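Collaborator request, handled under Task 6.
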Amino acid sequence: MMKHLKTMIFFFILTLSFSSLAQAQSEVLDRMKTEFQTFNIEAQSLPAALKTYENITGIKLEYSDEIVEGRKTNGVRGTNSPAKALERILTGTGLSYKITAQGEVVLQKAVEKKMAERPAMELQKTVVTATKTEHTLGDVPVVSAEVITKEEIEKANIETLADAVKWATNVYSIEGKGAAGVCKWSRSVASIQGLPPRFTQVLIDGQKLYGCAGRMYDISFYPVEMIERIEIIKGPASTLYGSEAVAGVINVITRSAPEKPTISASTGFGTYNTQVHKVSHGNRLDKFGYFLNYSRNQSDGMNPEVDEFKDDTFQATMEYKFSPTAKLSLKPLYHRREAVADPIKHEQYMLNSLLDWKPDEISHLKVRGSVLQLNYQPRRDQDEMTAYTYDAELDYSRLVRSLHMLTLGYQFQKDDYSDWGKWTGEHQTTHSLFCQDEMGFDPLTLVLGARMDHHNWWGNHVLPSASLLYRLSENFRLKAMVGTGFRSPKIVQISEEYKKKGKKFLKGNPALEPEKSIGYQFGVEYEITENLLTKVYLFRNDLEELIEIYNTGEVYKKLPVFGFKNVGEAYTQGVEMEVLTRFTDNLSGKLGYTFLESKNEKTDKELIYTPAHKLNIGFGFKQPEYGLGIDLRGEYIAKRYEDEANTKELGDYFLAHIKVNKDILKWLRAYISVDNIFDTKYEEATGVEMPGRTFFGGVNLRF
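Structure tokens returned to the collaborator:
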């Protein structure tokens, strides 16, 4: 009897022990999944990030120094549960965590997960452009954002920035001919949410880029070798980025210096005598690092007498690390285009300098200064023209009481233009102050921002914005925003100097107001499974004070004089949808669709180059053990008009493309692309047939 009693007491005590342990494990697990907090842990060494995590959450992590030493993390930003935040910190480190029965959170080497257990990697991509503070796509508190990584660019054998952004949902890459506000020789410009290309701001590491006389930047020349990732923000972003950021922002983040010596070279040949040759080298010497790249892109085109061109581009990144938290970068760029048709020459000089300093774990200071010089000769019978843009910016972000991420900034920009012998040099300056507050209220993140610009021609302009992210669950998010945008008049539009253009003169109007907009967006993001992500966004943009050119009735030197005035109003609205899926470890897919409606409210006509339907579909297959990658893509563009009277209709078309790359040796890769597989006939301008089936292939060496 006594023996049985002792046995019963033993099992009772054991049961209580297990119950206590289970309760401890359950309490820690419940706390990690339900107590949302605001995190500001940026990319850094893993040990430093883990210490910051412990300070924010109060959760003690158990691990050995050896298991975390030498590892780095992309960090985590925004409002998250401690569990989700720790998962984000450990993403890509080769580590995972477990909660023991005693309630301890222990780090361990990650066991290779089955395909179905892996997270949708799209949400782990880093994006800074949306708020000027670091977020992952899953946490960014703006409605529609997209990131294209260098790995995706390499997989698809993409050669230029234009080829990359055309695959983003709700972004339409079009030829410059006939597109309002772009240089006539531009080979490709980008339209976001159906707005004209002049309302899309293009940046390289935050530096504004312009084409001729401050017009829309030609994205066809920019090679991809220096690209780390491309961040695309869709919707008004003028609160943070000022003029031109009406439809959105395309920000190219360039590569940093590598940690070890790298050398790469590639050469490729294709249809129409197309040639692309690239060579790059990078290294790090103690605190100093660098990465250099030279690219030559040339082609005869379908019609050599009109299309032939040669692009030469040199880029570099030079870095000096004063400490693990302070770095100075210089990023020069030189580009030269020669063409047989007008213009015959186009040169671009750029220098972007960036100081990045994190004084402590909760603050971040960024200082940037840049200069851009454009030299171009529009026609053989004209003198060379020159344009300068000087830009300086200071941003300071700090986490206040674990609730507010405050960002304060100042920006100065000066533009100088001169038309030698025909136009007196003119300039315009803008001083800008902006502020933003990211507030984390479990499970809501609210972002309020405002900007004030002072322009030497048209005075002050205030731009407010607001956006929110609401988490119904870990996998279900609602997003909404309202924002304002503007585009300032350019020198040619406000200067009263006469400027000859063809068989007419242009005379500016100093009383012009900026073109203005207000945009609304609402979106839903739902991870149906860990391998299936869906996104649906609604958007509308209302434009007013649109600038139009008109005949003044004046005559100067026997030629008519045309001027500029604010008269137009327009809108675009529609729905954007994305589906991203991973069928197996080696096969993934993406579908992007946009329905778009646009109207010039003065003429009751559609805006030019605004297809009602745009569809992108892609499948990526990789077989690492054989070094094989296959990328299959299709694009559908519905009919659209190329003139404001809607009399010149461009027909719809569907194109299919395939890209294949194969690792021959560890240091040698071969690739081939076939574009427009079915040899579809289509036009981007009336009477100008676009290329049919084209081939391009080459080899890449890396050491």
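The cover message to the collaborator said: "The longest strand covers residues 532-556. Residues 2-34 form the longest helix (33 residues). Please let us know whether this matches your experimental observations."
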